[in-house]
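>> received
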Amino acid sequence: MALNIPGLISIILFYILTLAIGIWAGWRTKRLRKDGNQTEVAIVGGRRMNMFLGFFTMTATWVGGGYVNGTAEIIYLPGRGLIWLQAPLGYALGLSLGSLFFVTPMRSKKYLTMMDPFQESYGNIMTGFLFIPALIGDIFWFAAILSSLASAVSVIMDIQNYLSILLSAGIIITYTLFGGLYSVAYTDVIQLLFIILGLCLCVPFAMLNSATQSIFYTATQKVFQTPWIGKMDTQYMGVWLDDMLYISLGSIPWQIYFQRVLSASTTTQAKVTSLLSAVLTMLLAIPSVLVGAVAVSTDWNQTSYGLPTPYERDEAGMILPIVLQHLCPSYASVAGLGAVAAAVMSSADSTLLSSSSLFGYNIYKRIIRKQASEKEVMVIMRLSTVVLGSIGAGMAFLSNSVYDLWFTCGELVYTLVFPQLVCVLFIPRTNTYGSAAAFLLGLVLRLLGGVDSLKVPPVIHYPWCTLIEGVYIQLFPVKTFTMLTTLLTLVVVSYTSEVLFKKSFLPARWDICNIINAKDALPKPSTEVELLQITNRNLHQPNAHD
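>> returned
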């Protein structure tokens, strides 16, 4: 296939436009940095994000390259189909639950990052450990969405994967360095518009192609392969439920979500933005669902792609760009490529900013070098953006299936971080001992349970563990069981340790985490506003001798 010159020109223009907007947004935030805290402006935009910008950036963060490519892939795969497409509904549920339960407690104490409540309640060491799964998740996500762009570019424009990965990573790192959250948010606006317009333009052409049967007929009838509506045997109900809970609850404990929640001007605005994003996130899955359905309904022998089919060539992970290339006119496929590129950038930049924010503020500023200046923290955040972006770009070369890499990236966050977040926000008196015990037990249980997508065999065979084609498959909801075990362990160990020390069953000198003295001490104000409120209460409190 010859180099697609119009496609190359269009993608270069898109990159230039995105970079220009990111740099402009960074320049625009200079005034905010002069007026306020530089770190606060970079991480949460000075807490002045309007609803329009917040809505676009939150939606664009979830609707990434892995989302649009993975959705089409799961619809196309034989034996999967629509019934196994859980991400759109799961993400919508996660955003809704976040709005209803997590927004208010996180904003009430003016936290700067998701790790702040952990640092406040469980200390620096546990915060460091909890940072690790969040970091791994961000890097995997970054790699997955870069890989999705590489597959699209290689199919449509005949460009080597490594070129598109390196170019995209370079552009994303550059504009994220310039302006922090505002650069990410402003570029998200144009990126989300490209996603909507590009994919919606391509879908009608693909559906009306002469090689394609009616997707309404192939939804339930086998023509070229099994119906795209999919089916599910009863033995897989536990797996389906496990995955749905994982996607919905596991999508909450991410810095990229709370970064947008904490940047909103008001709590009400943060809640409404989250709910509206839940609706649009589901709606934006429709074009990819239709593309996957078209792929199932196509006689590939009548197209320029030919036989064997994409599934038989092990190219199901590239089904969206394959449909764009072989079932749409060239100008439509170029528009679709722009949509994929926009989807990649909209999530990739958010991921980089998320990881660099946590490292720069929670790890470097509050653990490694507490006396670091604002300027020094900003330098560290920029350096970590470059380093983490480079690592993620390198891992993108190792990706085989977009959906597997995308789906796997958050398992540790769901099983280890989510229960800790629930405890620190909603269950009083949990402590460092419980956090450490829960983290260790949860990690061991999850690893010993096996990871199918990474071909890691299980050591613990839970109920209904079945040998299928020489591979043990866990039909038990392993991820959710591990998450609940982590949650229960944290609560039980926390309360038990407190009783043991308070009742002097264990000597006070063994209390290395100082939980007893910490419980007896006055709460430390987290903001100047809270400090002023406490001072006013003390000034107006009646004297005990009066």
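>> The CA atoms of residues 187 and 356 lie 18 Å apart.
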